[in-house]
Specification:
The complex is a heterodimer of chains A (421) and B (533). In chain A, strands 1, 2, 3, 6, 13 and 14 form a 6-stranded mixed β-sheet that branches. In chain A, strands 8-11-7-12 form a 4-stranded mixed β-sheet. Chain A has a two-stranded antiparallel ribbon with strand order 4-5. Chain A has 421 residues and is an alpha/beta fold. Chain A contains 17 helices and 14 strands. In chain A, α3 runs antiparallel to α13. Chain A is globular, with a radius of gyration of 26 Å. Helix content of chain A is 46%, strand content 15%. Chain A folds into 2 domains: 50-156 and 309-376, D-Maltodextrin-Binding Protein, domain 2, CATH 3.40.190.10; 157-307 and 381-420, D-Maltodextrin-Binding Protein, domain 2 (3-Layer(aba) Sandwich), CATH 3.40.190. In chain B, α10 packs parallel to α15. Chain B has helices at 23-48, 52-70, 75-102, 114-125, 189-194, 196-204, 279-286, 288-324, 331-343, 346-356, 365-370, 382-410, 414-422, 427-455, 458-464, 484-492, 501-530; strands at residues 126-128, 135-141, 146-152, 155-160, 166-167, 172-174, 177-180, 185-186, 207-208, 217-220, 225-231, 233-236, 241-244, 250-254, 259-261. In chain B, the strands form 3 sheets. In chain B, strands 1, 2, 3, 4, 5, 8, 9, 10 and 11 form a 9-stranded antiparallel β-sheet that branches. In chain B, strands 12-13-14-15 form a 4-stranded antiparallel β-sheet, with helices on one face. In chain B, 54% of the residues lie in helices and 12% in strands. Chain B is of the alpha+beta class and 533 residues long. The chains are: A alpha/beta (421), B alpha+beta (533). At the A-B interface, α1, α2, α5, α12 and α16 of A face α1, α4, β1, α5 and α6 of B.
């Protein structure tokens, strides 16, 4: 009896296994004709033959899917769009590309370029004649040592957002004029800029460049050298300006104004101006404000040039389907149709000239494009990574009065140079 | 078939309960069938991916599991194995990998294998000639060679990797696309797109423009257009050298550093991972940037963990004693209220506290309500930031100890208390000699666990101070309230900036050793407490 039971058990187990195994194992036989479950598991990780995998954030996903449909139709190649958190893409791309599990194409910000280059995970992109269709700053941003490494889609920079109810007219070109007209409105704050205890070197950068102190020295073609450009007089003048307008000076700049506070006060109508980017426009408009966007006024003698951040698509160096991926990127994504689709799903100021022109009747968008025109791409050279850790914190300590402007700035320069090595 | 019970002096079962046919057995059979199905599926999927390690590992695990649940003598294992397996898969795997990384230079710039680094360097140094137009291109082949045919103005030119471009006067052109090239088979574009091997061959193919190598070669990136490219580096795989074709500088592969290095010390951009022995373990102590910060961070980590546990335990215990007094009214309500801080997610509370601790009384509630609108820099002064962290952590964790000690107090034996009272012990004496020792028997293991938790309390540090305020005397991006785990996070580059996984892994192992040793020692001490009973 016992033997019989064991026998039955073994039989039924085998039968069950066969049934379950059939689902997984059948995939092999059925693979050439139908997309079976086994095939799907392989494809999710890395592009198999005749297929490309694209990592994209939730906002841009519909745009990329729209662009990929035409490609799939014309070439018969399957495009798998994998949705990921934008902030996770950088580290996941770095970690997974070397293992062969990475995507063929991934969306990203141009300032990741430096670490992607030294880690050897991206391939160059040749847009050939199409380069003339994109704005110069967007191409500059994805260029490293004279070679292009990505397809730009959006160009962003901070600008001076104006609450038209409080300040109906565009402001003059200098910081003093802006403060004067801000004070004339009688609002609680003449202007707002988010600072916080860790500082915000990104948002402050336009003011810094107006003193002629770019973070890195720029070559004649606009690319950045690896020598710091803010260690000279310009940088010191900016540091002095921070102290003069900080909490021990005029109080216009204040580390207590964190991101949340700045946004909340502006939405409450307590300030006519805020330095902010296009990503917050929807928030302000939802709060019932009517806004306009102007270029950032200069605090120093030169033009205030904010950082321009460019977003676009990278091509993996270890892609098994680089030819397909390049074909998709250059011949299907670098088109007005696809770029418009991406703009529609994620409305950021577009990098493609034709798309920008078609949106000329949107004043906020053109305002940001004008603000970005003054700007310079945020450096993507690997050395930039070493700057962030010290930059904002030092500015914050000068603004709060915790440190003396001159020595603190000098120490920051020394620290950054030490970190760059 | 005999009745199978294990109780008393009844006869021993003739069959193991593992094979006895009862409803429970059917359920087990079903569950095991599912386990087997899943196991076989995993093995099959791993086989398809050519992940041999996973395939063999899962096969071994599956066989072992089957043996355990169908054999007679494996009763204890039946209970232990599921937990053991999960430990193996989810803990040991990542621990072993951390251990492996700690002995490599895995970091920004050393992210890949040497082959991939070579790929990347070649990609970065192959440039399109600035004056080169884009030519319409088709892929052609004969029996043994793959080649390109390009349309240069009106003429079609054909070449292979060995033979430079030559005119093909009889080729047929339709508009800008090459239809036919005599002597060659034009490969349809769909073939190029769908055949992966062909695709890779096409990508790797370089057709020299002329006999003169200086003129560069035709290359295609997407299979339909070509352009002239020149490479400024030449890789010699056997010698392991990169040679700059313009300057003649030779870069040797240095397997110690994982870089291509020239005589004068300059290196090429992309490096690869190599083993570096114990370098990472000594760097924290020897490298100037880290060594000054490291010691202070270690001390603060111990202080933070110890003070957090001690303060929360004492406050929780004091409240528990007060609310243990039956004379108090509305005890249940009060007790419930005290648990509230514990009921909120800790990281959310930390963020709230961060806002409330804003130094400006206009925004910061703490300064506004409790410090007469004074401007106190809670989070940017090195000492006050530490105080703030401890206070917030106290607020977050005293309810836990309140609950634990309330339970423990209520379970203390009344007779011992009574005996103490009869022996003439006063309140303090009873508490000191009876209550506290008895309490510690049951709570000491929790104190140790809590210490270990606070030793690695990353969420609170990250959310409240982010490690700041920054040290001013070191170039490392570390601060006064950084504990070891947040230092590791900073070094790993997860927050952005340069990442050094090798050093971060080595430090993680050190932290593990510290916490492990302390816990082991402390648990041994608690055993002594039990002897009081």
């Amino acid at each position: 009896m016992r033997k019989l039971i064991v026998g039955v058990a073994a039989l039924s187990a085998t039968a069950l296994l066969a049934a379950c195994g059939g689902g997984g194992g059948g995939g092999n036989e059925a693979e050439p004709t139908t997309g079976s479950s086994a095939e799907e598991t392989t494809s999710a990780a890395a592009g198999g033959a005749g297929e490309i995998v694209i990592w994209v954030d939730a906002n841009r996903e519909p745009g990329v899917i729209a662009a990929s449909e035409k490609f799939e139709e014309e070439t018969g190649v399957a495009v798998t769009v994998v949705q990921k958190e934008f902030g996770d893409i950088r580290s996941d791309f770095l970690a997974l590309v070397p293992t062969g599990e990475g995507p063929d194409i991934a969306v990203g910000a141009h300032d990741w370029l430096g670490s992607f280059i030294v880690n050897g995970v991206i391939s160059s992109v040749d847009l050939a004649d199409k380069t003339s269709e994109f704005s110069d700053v967007s191409l500059e941003a994805f260029t490293w040592e004279g070679q292009l490494y990505g397809l730009p889609t959006a160009v962003e920079s901070v600008g001076l957002i104006r609450n038209t109810e409080l300040a109906p007219d565009p402001v003059g070109g200098t910081f003093e004029e802006m403060v004067a007209s801000g004070e004339a409105t009688g609002a609680q704050y003449p202007f707002l800029i988010k600072t916080g205890p860790e500082g915000d070197a990104y948002t402050y950068y336009a003011f810094q460049t107006s003193f002629g102190a770019p973070v890195f020295q720029q070559n004649d073609d606009g690319s950045y050298a690896s020598e710091l450009g803010m260690g000279e007089e310009g940088g010191q003048a900016f540091a002095t300006w921070l102290a003069e307008n900080g909490q021990t000076g005029t109080g216009l700049l204040n580390t207590d104004i964190t991101l949340d506070i700045a946004e909340a006060e502006f939405m409450a109508g307590n300030s006519p101006y805020i330095i902010d980017g296009p990503w917050n426009v929807a928030k302000y408009e939802d709060a019932g404000l009517t806004i306009a966007v102007d270029p950032i006024p200069a605090a120093g003698p030169e033009t205030a040039a904010p950082f321009v951040g460019v977003q676009g698509f990278y091509l993996s160096a270890q892609s098994q389907n680089q030819l397909l991926a390049t074909d998709f990127l250059v011949n299907y994504m670098a088109t007005q149709e696809a770029q418009t689709a991406i703009y529609t799903s994620d409305p950021r100021p577009p990098a493609m000239n034709a798309v920008a022109d078609s949106l000329a009747d949107d004043p906020v968008l053109t305002g940001f494009l004008a603000a970005a025109e003054n700007g310079a791409p945020m450096p993507s050279i690997p050395e930039m990574n070493s700057v962030w850790d010290f930059w904002g914190v030092t500015q914050a300590s000068i603004i709060s009065g915790a440190a003396e402007a001159g020595p603190a700035w000098d120490k920051m320069i020394a620290d950054i140079n030490g970190a760059i090595g | 078939m005999s009745v199978t019970t294990t109780r008393g002096a009844e006869p021993l079962p003739t069959t193991s309960h593992a094979r006895n046919w009862r409803p429970g057995y059917a359920v087990k059979l079903l569950l095991m069938a599912l386990v087997n199905a899943f196991g076989v599926y995993t093995i099959w999927a791993a086989y398809l991916q050519s992940s041999w390690g996973i395939a063999i590992g899962s096969a071994v695990i599956l066989v072992v599991v089957d043996w355990i649940y169908f054999a007679k003598r494996t009763l204890p294992l039946k209970y232990i194995v599921p937990g053991l397996l999960f430990l193996l898969v989810f803990q040991l795997g990542s621990m072993l990998y951390t251990g492996y990384v700690a002995f490599t230079n895995y970091s920004t710039g050393h992210n890949t294998t040497m082959d991939q680094a070579v790929d990347a360097i070649m990609i970065q140094n192959e440039r399109r000639s600035e004056d080169s137009p884009s030519y319409p291109l088709v892929v052609v082949r004969d029996e043994d060679a793959l080649g390109f045919a390009i349309l240069d103005g009106e003429t079609v030119r054909v070449g292979t990797a060995e033979e430079a471009l030559a005119d093909a006067p009889d080729a047929v052109v339709d508009g800008t696309s090459i239809v036919e090239v005599p002597g060659w088979e034009v490969v349809p574009r769909t073939d190029v797109l769908t055949d992966q091997e062909l695709q890779e061959a096409v990508l790797a193919l370089r057709v020299p423009v002329s006999e003169d190598a200086e003129e560069g070669s035709i290359r295609t990136r997407e299979g339909s257009t070509g352009a002239v490219y020149r490479s400024s580096l030449e890789y010699d795989q056997d010698a392991g050298t990169m040679t700059d074709t313009a300057s003649g500088v030779v870069y040797h592969a240095d397997q110690q550093q994982g870089l291509f290095v020239a005589e004068d010390g300059t290196a090429l951009t992309v490096g690869w991972r190599v083993h570096v022995g114990f370098d990472n373990f000594t760097r924290a102590f020897t490298e100037a940037d880290y060594s000054t910060a490291f010691l202070r961070i270690v001390l603060w980590t111990f202080a933070f963990a110890a003070l957090s546990v001690a303060s929360a335990f004492l406050v929780g215990l004091a409240l528990a004693i007060v609310f243990d007094d039956t004379r108090l009214r509305a005890r249940k309500l009060m007790r419930t209220l005290f648990v509230l801080p514990y009921a909120f997610p800790a990281f959310l509370s930390a963020l709230l506290w961060r806002g409330m601790l804003n130094p400006n009384p206009q925004y910061g509630l703490i300064n506004d309500w409790f410090f007469f609108d004074a401007y106190i820099r809670w989070l940017s002064d090195p000492f006050l930031a530490k105080v703030a962290l401890l206070v917030v952590n106290l607020w977050l964790s005293f309810p836990y100890w309140f609950v634990i000690t309330t339970g423990a107090l209520q379970s203390l034996p009344d007779d011992v208390m009574e005996a103490a009272r009869i022996d003439g012990a006063g309140g303090w004496r009873t508490w000191r000699s009876i209550t506290l020792p008895l309490l510690l028997v049951s709570t000491a293991p929790l104190l140790i666990a809590s210490f270990a938790f606070n030793f690695n309390n990353f969420a609170l540090i990250f959310m409240l101070t982010g490690g700041g305020p920054r040290f001013t005397d070191t170039s490392a991006a570390l601060g006064h309230t950084d504990i070891l785990i947040s230092m590791i996070y900073q070094i790993s580059g997860a927050a952005g900036g340069r990442s050094d996984y090798g050093l971060a892994s080595a430090l993680s192992i050190l932290v593990f050793l510290v916490v492990g040793t302390i816990s082991a020692l402390a648990f041994r001490q608690t055993r002594k407490l039990e002897e009081i009973l």
